[in-house]
């Protein structure tokens, strides 16, 4: 494991009466580092979060962190993470909080599977106590979930107030119109519909979390946000009979998970419910909502998820031990095949991974050496591929037909190959979706010509890698023997189709792609962890390893694609009097990237339009042609045409 201890002497830095040692880094985020510190007055261990103000670019991040600090400053409960102090210098902001070293509730559930009811009631009562304090001070949390409940010596503490706002603030009314805040599985139907957030959204999340602790699973699950909303609205809430729980707990779940907000409990109602009152004396005393003044708290400008080595301190924690100890290079997925006489689907080989030796300096940026080495590796592989595929003469054609099928001697002959054309097209489109994103990602990685502001290039690389992993994971479900009935893509005559030769070829390719694309996603994830990107709340909401496909992923990804296209569009030279003249060569790569980003934006748009209609999606786009698109010289006329296309896509 690579840690900073070998790079820094035992030198302590002082901030007022707190201190920390540079060799006791316990985590880091996009624009911050977190150290195990000490209060020199009391010798108490604290967490010191150091935010680099040079990485702060956008005012929205200042607002979000100001909300978080002001909220924490307002609370006084043993069940809420305690803020000790905030300091600000010209270069840094320092946030001092209590130090928690016992993980979070999510880790407890994962480790134990489920928690027995008596212990769940104890935990729930303490969380309710914390939530009552939040409500009394006029705030809503908006991201209650097990990962945001820290455990310190068996005491649960509500943490991560990055989405917290005052109940009647304009921010509550305005946020959610462009993208949801929170975590979908714990969001109320009103939040999923983007109808705004109230304290009853926190109550819904409490009900989901209570259910999850008792049964080891959430009450509603789905692959997409729309599917989750459909499940909530149209599927009756089922409380499992095993393990058996008390009637009071069942009633609490039902009253928290009322679809109608008017019928759902309020926060103060939880304090009078039997699961609370029979374990704790009533403590809730209604007080008028009041705005907490925090003018004496300096306003730092970014909230940063913590990367943690040995404890859970906030949402989005990244374990230092999981960082790669050596560099990995991903080969270019540039194999092109031709159509053979039998017109069968021939799928390209998935990308491979080459592990390079560790660098001598583990703390320096790896990107430069990765680019240099990968160019050598990719060039060698491409030369082999060209020779190999000249002999193979096979191609991935959009919507190829006449697929041969395999007939077992002991089974009824499978139906006509034309019957499976639609199924083949569906799988073909999804695989090409992954290939397009992977190949485009490699083209960006292997070029030094693309520059975008505020870490936008790295964010797009991560979003593409995650999108690839999401798609290949979903494809893998149809070949998983343990889920043989899972017809995720609504393939026709699925049981019969599984016996076809074309499906066997798809299965083999999907299995190999799944392994290699997941490895690429892990490498990209670690690359982002090791970088110091400007703080970005939207990106932070997607920066995790959750591969569930939700609509919010595509909404947020589209916003970054539009931003990148706008930047690139502004870099093109002004119109020439000779529209058929070629642009200077230095603009060719920007033109090519703009084309491919436009294609990806179009793919995202079509995905949102046909979230559960894979057949229609396969007919809308020619993704195989996008995969094979190459960088060529372009004219001023082509640039003007692309400008118009970009403007149309941006305005959608």
TrEMBL record:
GO terms for cellular component: autophagosome; cytoplasm; cytosol; membrane; phagophore assembly site. ATP binds at residue 49. Residues 20-276 form the Protein kinase domain. One of its GO terms (molecular function) is ATP binding. Residues 291-302 have a biased composition (Polar residues). Keywords: ATP-binding, Kinase, Nucleotide-binding, Transferase. Residues 291-379 are annotated as: Disordered. PROSITE patterns: PROTEIN_KINASE_ATP (PS00107), PROTEIN_KINASE_DOM (PS50011), PROTEIN_KINASE_ST (PS00108). GO terms for biological process: autophagosome assembly; regulation of autophagy. InterPro entries: Atg1-like, Kinase-like_dom_sf, Prot_kinase_dom, Protein_kinase_ATP_BS, Ser/Thr_kinase_AS. It comes from the Eukaryota. PANTHER family: NON-SPECIFIC SERINE_THREONINE PROTEIN KINASE (PTHR24348:SF22), SERINE/THREONINE-PROTEIN KINASE UNC-51-RELATED (PTHR24348). This is Protein kinase domain-containing protein. It comes from Paramecium tetraurelia.
